[in-house]
């Protein structure tokens, strides 16, 4: 009898411990609020699926570099991944809506943008064998300056830090000279008098300790770039129905939690800038109006460059409030 019981237990054991393991690749640091949110998502999935699915999170470009993650997941080299939406622009042009300056000016705007953007992103991803799970914005991009800025006239003759064609164009339209400076070299450039202003998030300012030469921070909310988490569609479809439901539910919770975390991090970062002696202000009415006009100009140019599908985002975004 003892032998029979032991054999029966042995036969059941593999089923009880059967587990699917996924690798989820991200290029961001383990300390990033995005990564912490992903880790919580993975834990929620494992708990909700009673251990049927375990997701290993590989942060800081450890598995694949940020720009390579979508292709790696598409090819099944990793089952899931995270990247910033603008990394998808080459294959999915409408993902670039995230980087059109001075269009999305608040978290509620960003939410509305994602609501109209998501169905289109899902269709494009599906055509590549990917499934979008959720997206979370970074804190908004603000204006750092060594002196007071009241209107675009104050940028004339100054130097603005740039890092891509979009920021170069912003500098030029504001009348500033673009200066290509990696974020890690900003403090050195400021100390050397080679830089007067830059557009980046309060969080990035805190992480790079820009206080010193920088005296002002304006919450212009230039844009709200988003990170998107996605999965290989075949890997998702191979899961049992209850496990798929667990993933979907945990993803929805991660999105809600992530947006709240982003807003909290934005507020904490602005507070830290103030504690370090940087004056935090809203943009003047004149500057805000000028930035809105730039947003209209950038919107028209983006629609022209992307084509008709861009209208499927901007028309409902602007008119279905």
UniProtKB/TrEMBL annotation:
N-terminal signal peptide? 1-18
This protein's name: TRAP transporter substrate-binding protein
The UniProt record lists the keyword Protease: no
Keywords on this record?
Signal
InterPro entries tied to this protein: DctP_fam (IPR018389), TRAP_DctP_sf (IPR038404)
């Amino acid at each position: 009898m003892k032998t029979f019981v032991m054999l029966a237990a042995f036969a059941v054991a593999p089923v009880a411990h059967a587990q699917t393991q996924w690798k989820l690749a991200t290029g961001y640091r383990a300390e990033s609020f995005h990564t912490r949110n992903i880790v919580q998502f993975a834990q929620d999935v494992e708990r909700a699926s009673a251990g049927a699915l375990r997701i290993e999170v590989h942060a800081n470009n450890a598995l694949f570099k940020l720009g390579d993650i979508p292709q790696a997941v598409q090819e099944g080299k990793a089952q899931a991944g995270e990247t910033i939406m603008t990394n998808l622009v080459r294959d999915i042009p409408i993902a670039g809506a995230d980087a059109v300056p001075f269009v999305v000016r608040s978290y509620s705007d960003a939410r509305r943008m994602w609501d109209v953007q998501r169905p289109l992103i899902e269709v494009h991803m599906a055509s590549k064998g990917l499934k979008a799970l959720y997206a979370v914005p970074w804190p908004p991009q603000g204006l750092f300056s060594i002196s007071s800025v009241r209107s675009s006239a104050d940028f004339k003759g100054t130097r603005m830090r740039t890092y891509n064609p979009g920021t170069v164009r912003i500098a030029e339209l504001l009348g500033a000279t673009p200066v290509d400076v990696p974020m890690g070299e900003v403090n050195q450039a400021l100390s050397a008098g080679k830089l007067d202003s830059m557009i980046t998030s309060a969080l990035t300012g805190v992480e790079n300790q820009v206080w010193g030469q920088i005296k002002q921070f304006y919450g212009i909310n230039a844009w709200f770039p988003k990170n998107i988490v996605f999965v290989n569609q075949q890997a998702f479809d191979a899961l049992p129905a209850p496990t798929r439901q667990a993933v979907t539910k945990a993803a929805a919770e991660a999105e809600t939690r992530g947006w709240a975390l982003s807003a909290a991090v934005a507020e904490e970062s602005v507070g830290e800038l103030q504690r370090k002696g940087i004056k935090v202000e809203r943009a003047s009415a004149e500057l805000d109006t000028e930035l809105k006009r730039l947003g209209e100009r950038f919107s028209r140019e983006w629609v022209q460059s992307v084509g008709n599908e861009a209208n499927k985002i901007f028309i409902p975004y602007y008119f279905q409030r």
